[in-house]
Write a structure and sequence with these properties.
Strands 2-3-1-4-5 form a five-stranded parallel β-sheet, with helices on both faces. The C terminus is likely disordered. Helix content is about 55%, strand content about 10%. It has one domain: Rossmann fold. The chain is α/β, with parallel strands linked by helices and about 230 residues long. It is built from nine helices and five strands. Helix 3 crosses helix 4 and helix 4 runs antiparallel to helix 5. It starts with 5 loop residues before the first helix and ends in a 12-residue tail after the last helix.
Length: about 230
Amino acid sequence: MKWLNIQSCERTGVALRRKHNVLESRTKPQLIPAFTMRIVFIGPPGAGKGTQAEKIIAQFKPAHLSTGDMLRAARDAKTEIGLEAEKYMSSGKLVPDEVVIGVIADRLKQDDCKSGYLLDGFPRTIAQAEALDKMLADAGTPLDVVLELKVPDEELFSRLSKRGRADDNPETIKERIAVYNNQTSPLLDYYGKKGLLKTIEGLGTVNEIFARIEKVLNPPKSGCGCACR
């Protein structure tokens, strides 16, 4: 009568399981890494930035970070920084940069931002850009790209004039475009010097414009000849 060697059986079982796991890992399809790009999106009124932002989010699934939405969410959640922002919002005053940066910092800690985000409506000035850069540098998560949706002033004027809103009179439209240009020009220089700025021509159909954005966010690999990253 032969006695069963329990330790030997256990070792054999472990070896078989390891072999099975190795074979299984070789046959399983490899998961493609998630989109993790950190983006600032800049564009003048009438450029169609909102439409393109929606398409970027639908295609690449970054978190959409709108300054106004973040401020309201922080206020409603009654966070410490949200209550600070409420003091200014309730009185109709501009929320100071340091408070806005604090709100953004809190928002970026949420899980959905770990897979990338699209920052829409901020920064608007050099001071805001510098504060944002410092905050992201401290966190070890610098920006990857700054998208500028560029449309000639005369085309913006034409588009805004056709909307038919009561406040879209010629003088108001010209003023809004001028304010944007004055605010944004230094910002574009700032990001251009950092090598982050990518200018997208904003003329053409919605899909034509988005195809240009895709080429920036999802460029073909060299020598690949395909549209994969």
